[in-house]
Structures are given as C-alpha cells and as structure tokens.
Amino acid sequence: MAETSEEAIRAYWKEHREQLRQCETQRSTLTNLLLIVTAALSGLIVQQKFTLNVMPLCLFVAATGVYGAVAVAKYYERASYHLTQARALTRDLADRGVLGSDEGLARARAAHYREFPRLHRIRLHRLWVGLHLAIALYGLSLLLVCVIVA
C-alpha cells in the first residue's frame, strides 16, 4: 500500500478546515435570518395589537426559535467533526516531522487561559443554542400576551 504524501495530508487538512468555516458561516447566516424574521413578525404582531388573528405568527416565531436551536446544534456537531479530523491530520503531520514543536502553541494557549480565566470555559455553541431558545420563549410570550389581551 502506498504511503500517503505530506501534500495529500495537507490538502485533506485544508478541506476539513474549510468545511469547519462553512459550518460557522451557515450558522451565522441562519441566526441572522431568524433574528430578522423574528423582528419583522414582532412588528406585525404589535401593529395588529396582539389580536387572536396573530396567534399563528406567535407560534411561528416560537417554532423558528426551536428550529434554530436544533440547526445550530447540528452545525456545531458538523464543525466539531471537521475540527477533530483536522486535528488528527495535524498529529499525522507532526509525527512525520513536517510541523515544529507544540511548545509555542502550548505557551500561547496557557497565556490565553490566564488572561480569560472564566470566558474560555463558556462554550460558544451553548450561547448560540440559548439565543435560539430565547427566540422560542419570546414567541411563546407573544402568544401569551395575545391570549391575555383577547
């Protein structure tokens, strides 16, 4: 069996990194779109003075929040997969001696963790999922206001 060349490993590594970036871009685009839709529907619901006719719109806002939470969780799963693959390929390149030592990176990482002792522990994907769940709760709150006003 032929040995995999360093250039092939680098190309494969680059592909996984690009796929990871694409997942993050798609997550960002979806979040922005759902925030715009939520804002627009909120304006319409308020304009209609929270009548019973806008209850389906409130449910739609809640549903988009739930959908967004599930979608960004899936984007995180895919990004995590590609990052894991890229890290494995990085180890392969390091084992072949193509990359330098990991000492500089380890020192930079430790300095970063000292500078941000609490923030580095917060997982970013949880913030994104939380934002979408907040949109879902907001939609349910609008629904509750419509029921109370009516």
From TrEMBL:
List residues traversing the bilayer: 30-48, 54-73, 127-149
What keywords appear on the UniProt entry?
A: Membrane, Transmembrane, Transmembrane helix
Out of the domains of life, which is the source? Bacteria
What this protein is called in its record is: DUF4231 domain-containing protein
